[in-house]
Specification:
Blueprint lengths: L2 H15 L4 E10 L9 E5 L4 E3 L7 H9 L10 E6 L3 H7 L6 E8 L4 H11 L4 E6 L5 E5 L7 E2 L3 E6 L4 E5 L3 H12 L3 E5 L15 E2 L4 H7 L6 E5 L4 H11 L6 E4 L3 H13 L4 H4 L2 E2 L11 H16 L10 H4 L1
Helix pairs in contact: 1-4, 5-10, 6-7
């Protein structure tokens, strides 16, 4: 889940607590070339204010019109199904790609208790499944895992919600600044650890949150989970290897360290001598990033984040050779 989705839910909770009526729309099915994937959400307040998107702007105007022209009766069912783009004429009318079709749930939000609980569990870095009964509107929250996906059988919508993806950077040097800026554009929560006070100057809060302590302490203190990536960028083995020893035994989905192929091999030897298992060492990405001929800090940051996003999205890294073959 990204910050946009979390903001939709936070807004719904705020509006309901203020006593305002709210309708929550969720994309549950798509056919053809649909502009938004299942799970996308939009909240519509009783005065027509909206947050979020279910079509990238194609059908939002019609959803607002439904509110004003009485197609959302106050005494109607708690949940309705709406489909856009069934015919070519409708696709053209609503600005959908040719052949694209969206099916949405139109859900009147009642008791906001489930929203409060869901957001609290996401903030605690839990992954949560929300089951919505289409007939009764009843909501049930259950634990979920990263392999779960949205499902809809016509009677029950089971949507998956979770915390934002996080990126912990070890080192606050120049490269880290480029990585942090790009990562935030990709909606990662950026964390930085660097016990060297000389490198802290010039960092602004909007670029990331500093985690105090030594690198290994930082990895532990943030409660590293399956939605966390950790990259060591100091070029100082006393700091980088300290972080890696802890990170490679954690649940982080990506652990990498800056360095050449030769230095990456040396680092693996050092980690083995320090007692790290071969299985853990094999998780280490180094040299980091996809091969794009990068030389400048910005290009290196781009190649690194391309690799992290690919792994996050379950894409096989065909571009990279095994380290021993690449030397």
């Amino acid at each position: 889940m990204d910050s946009v989705d979390l903001n939709v839910l936070r807004s719904v909770l705020e509006w309901r607590r203020a006593g305002q009526r709210v309708v929550l729309y969720s994309v549950v099915q798509t056919w053809g070339t649909a502009p938004r994937a299942p799970g996308a959400m939009l909240a519509l307040r009783e005065d027509g204010v909206v947050i979020g998107s279910v079509s990238g702007g194609c059908v939002e105007d019609d959803l607002i019109a439904r509110l004003h022209d009485g197609r959302i009766p106050a005494d109607g069912p708690p949940v309705q199904l709406i489909t856009y783009g069934i015919t070519r004429e409708e696709a053209a009318r609503f600005g959908l790609p040719c052949g694209g079709t969206l099916r949405l749930t139109e859900e009147r939000v009642g008791d906001p208790a489930w929203l409060d609980e869901l957001l609290r569990r996401c903030e605690a870095h839990e992954i949560v499944a929300r089951s919505l009964d289409i007939v009764t509107g009843e909501v049930v929250l259950q634990p979920a895992n990263k392999a779960d996906a949205l499902s809809f059988d016509g009677k029950t919508l089971r949507a998956i919600y979770g915390p934002r993806w996080r990126l912990l950077l070890i080192g606050a040097g120049q490269l880290s600044r480029y990585v942090a800026e790009m990562a935030r554009l990709l909606d990662f929560e950026v964390l930085i650890c660097d016990p060297r006070t000389e490198f802290v100057y010039g960092w602004e809060e909007q670029h990331g949150r500093f985690v105090s302590g030594m690198p290994d302490e930082a990895v532990l203190s943030i409660q590293t989970d399956e939605r966390t990536a950790i990259v060591a960028l100091t070029h100082d083995p006393r700091l980088d290897d300290m972080a890696l020893l802890t990170a490679l035994d954690s649940k982080a989905f990506y652990v990498g360290a800056l360095g050449s192929r030769v230095n990456s091999l040396k680092r693996r030897d050092n980690l083995a001598q320090l007692g790290l298992s071969e299985e853990a060492i094999e998780r280490l990405h180094g040299p980091i990033g996809l091969h794009i001929g990068s030389h400048t800090p910005a290009e290196i940051a781009l190649s690194l984040l391309a690799e992290i996003v690919a792994i996050k999205n379950g894409i096989e890294l065909k571009q990279k050779k095994p380290l021993q073959e690449a030397v």
